[in-house]
Amino acid sequence: MTDRGLRISDLHVDVAGNHILKGIDLYVEPGRVHALMGPNGSGKSTLAFALTGHPNYRVVSGSATLDGEDLFALPPDKRARAGLFLSFQYPAAIPGVKVANFLHAARQAVRPGDLTPSKFRALLMEKLQTLDMDPAFLGRYLNDGFSGGEKKRLEMLQMAVIGPKYAILDETDSGLDVDALRAVGESVHALRASEEGNKTGFLIITHYPRILQHIEADAVHVMIDGRIVKEGAAELAHRIEREGYEGLREEIGQLA
Length: 256
Hints:
Layout: E1 6-15, E2 18-28, E3 33-37, H1 44-52, E4 57-66, E5 69-70, H2 76-82, E6 84-87, E7 94-98, H3 99-110, H4 117-130, E8 141-142, H5 148-162, E9 166-170, H6 178-193, E10 201-206, E11 219-224, E12 227-232, H7 235-243, H8 246-255
Parallel strand pairs: 3-10, 3-11, 6-9, 9-10
Antiparallel strand pairs: 1-2, 1-4, 4-5, 7-8, 11-12
């Protein structure tokens, strides 16, 4: 199937009248990990929100398709049903809503009626085991009193339960300590090793390259000022760690 993949072509996006994305081209293949790096304010999260349908992010021109289907022709809920998942930088806490009930509602929203309650419970237990998480987690209220690492692990569990085709992880490393970051990396590895997960395409959005010490990227893309200015293999992330983004800015200026 030649149309497979999350394909973004010449995408321009405005936010509150400001032109943020200025012609983004990006292709995320099934089963591969792409890292999108860049300094704060470069437009990385704007891309994530535009793809998932946030109303404040206006697509001016360009296209995005998910396995050949026009993403921008779909409302946000149908984008999720088509197989797109977004892990938020700052997940909300909802006291009174238990994790187990939330996960069941999330699965039902994306794949309504595909599992009986008993089969869903079995799936939940399987994914908890895959991610090495305590089943007691399910009885807690959603993100209420969770540490940063616990919030991110819950998002990994949500992703595992939903089984998306393409997952966008927006600043997953934000505010995490070394142990929490390692736990998230191990979770992504465990998901990729599963039957469903090894078909999922990942777009990991990050400011710092440290998360890529725990999740190996197949390709790295660098965004500066709303444009992708450099692409390469994992070594590109290591170069940014050594030199920062200023080295790339200087290189771009010399080539311009």
